[in-house]
Amino acid sequence: MTVGMDPTSGEQLRTRVSSALRWSFFNSVFMRMGQLLLSIFLARLIAPEQFGVYAAALVVINIILSISELGVSVSLVQHTGDISEMGPTVTTLSWASGAMLGAVCFFGAPYFADALGAPEATGVIQLMSVAVVVAGAAAVPGAILQRNFRQDHKMVADVLSFLVSLVVAVVLALADFGPWALAWSRVAANVTAALVMVLFTKERFRPGFNAQQARRVLAFGLPLAGSSLLIFVVLNVDYIVVGHVLGPVALGYYLIAFNLSSWPVSAFSTTIRSVSLAAFSHLREDAEEFRRSFGHALASLMALTIPACVLLAALAVPLLRFVYGPRWLPSATPLAILSILGALRVALELAYDYLAASGRTRPILWIHLLWLAGLIPALAIGATIDGLAGVAWGHVLVVCLLVTPAYLFALRRIGVTARGIFKPLLRPVIGGLVMGGVIVVVERLVASDFLVLLTGGVASLTAYTLIVYPMRKQLILRRPQFS
């Protein structure tokens, strides 16, 4: 059986990408809202210290899941030709790595739990190690769904897994299972999603092994697995620095600020990344079209991201005071600064997928090593000099001064020029600056937090829309333009 990507014209590709994006967007919204409501409900049933035990276990599991199948399944998404030859080898590597890392997680649980200062999390980690094994087994079906732009099937898997986890978590929490309720719900969700993805996948491979194929996919996947691990560390090392230098109270404020600033990443970047790697890979055979596709995709994505980040930054004080209460106002300054980081992260994640689609995974690994090397001292210095604001500025400065130039250099080497990147961003950036100015004026004229949020949001978005409207045909969610 020959298993390759369906031949698609430019118009067919745009149609498939558009459909996939819509499904991915609906899926993202549903999952974010569902998880938020579930967390609020469970917080009323499970004591904070029990949440802490689960959180310690979750850190361990997430670290291992970031490399659970060594990145090899991405090679199926990136490859544009027949995958029947490489499929069995990728399946073997995914299953084997998932089983091996699951065993590491299970037998290393006592040591991991002690290192995190939560020895009572040992059993929870061992239970959740099942999720690592399942992730390795489900990697290939998930990659094939992504490769074929079947985000509708992925949404079915996610929704069903969420509903199963909801029932398990609530029933066990009511039965006073504490952190075990959350652990069992996580395992149940992973197993459900894996089964649904397998049922939806027509291309199924039995384990097999080809040494030449193994070397090729490992050369491609291992740098991505290393990068995924580094990304996890990059996005969590700040919690360690804040807790160690500034204490637990400051960590609570910072957690609120960082989670809020990450909403644009969750809403837009997650949606686009569900199709971007496969879409870029489709265009790789046409060098000129592939080169131009990044600038167009970035402009489309940032046209949606910039206004969301500006609203979070400019309305940080009234938002926190109105929604969370006055006691959370210390989160306002880091939230405003971290909103800049949120916008930059969206752009960099798209660049990550573009480099991966081009087959250049090693530069991604080196960039993230550079990111981590610069971030740790920047966060420590920032925390010492200016508290939470210093930590937030440390994040932004490292991304601006180190990471972004490194990505620009890597992109330049495959033909993407700085002019091709920044020229399409001109209108969204100008629109974002105008939004900020409008909100400043509204805050001077209106006293009520609710009215500031309502009036400032509507007025600034109206101004932004007027500025960005001429580039409406480039918006991915309206009409995908990867060429």
Task: Indicate the structural class.
Answer: mainly alpha
Beta fraction: under 5%
Query: Helices and strands, in N-to-C order?
Result: HHHHHHHHHHHHHHHHHHH
Low-confidence stretches: 476-483
Distance between the ends:
32 Å
Give the CA-based shape: globular
Rg measurement, Å: 23 Å
Number of strands: 0
Largest pleated sheet: none
Please bin the fraction of helical residues: over 70%
Instruction: Give average pLDDT, whole number.
Output: 80
Number of structural domains: 2
Helix segment count? Answer: 19
Q: What does this protein structure show overall?
A:
The chain has 483 residues and is mainly α. The protein folds into two domains: 1-222, no CATH class; 235-483, no CATH class. It is built from 19 helices and no strands. It has helices at residues 10-43, 48-65, 74-78, 87-107, 109-115, 122-147, 151-174, 179-200, 211-234, 237-246, 248-261, 263-282, 287-314, 316-324, 332-357, 362-412, 418-422, 426-445, 449-468. The longest helix has 51 residues, at 362-412. The chain is globular and about 70 Å long. The model is unreliable at 476-483 (pLDDT under 50).
